[in-house]
Amino acid sequence: MKDYDENDIRYQHAKRQVERLSRFYRHLFIYIVVNILIVFYNCKHLDPGESYFQFKNFFTATLWGIGW
């Protein structure tokens, strides 16, 4: 037996909120995984003595972070 009515406005609003939150966390997970992979790639391809802290190493994370 259902304790809710799928046509109820409050149910529809709650369902939309859960879907938006789910999409946000999915996007956040992908953002973190992709940027971790980019960090490992950039670290592996540094020249000897070169500092990691350059804008080119944070380009994707910065623009993707601002864009979303």
How would you sum up this structure, described in words?
It is a single chain. The protein has 68 residues and is mainly α. It has helices spanning 9-44, 55-67. The longest helix has 36 residues, at 9-44. It is rod-shaped.
What order do the SSEs take from the amino end to the carboxyl end, as H and E?
Answer: HH
Q: What is the mean predicted local confidence, pLDDT?
A: 86
Shape: rod-shaped
Can you tell me the residue ranges where pLDDT is under 50 for at least 5 consecutive residues? none
Query: Roughly what percent helix?
Result: over 70%
Instruction: Let me know the number of strands.
Output: 0
Q: Which structural class best describes the helix and strand composition?
A: mainly alpha
Rg value: 20 Å
Strand content: under 5%
Total of DSSP H or I helical runs spanning 4+ residues: 2
Query: Main β-sheet, in a few words?
Result: none
- The span between the termini is 40 Å
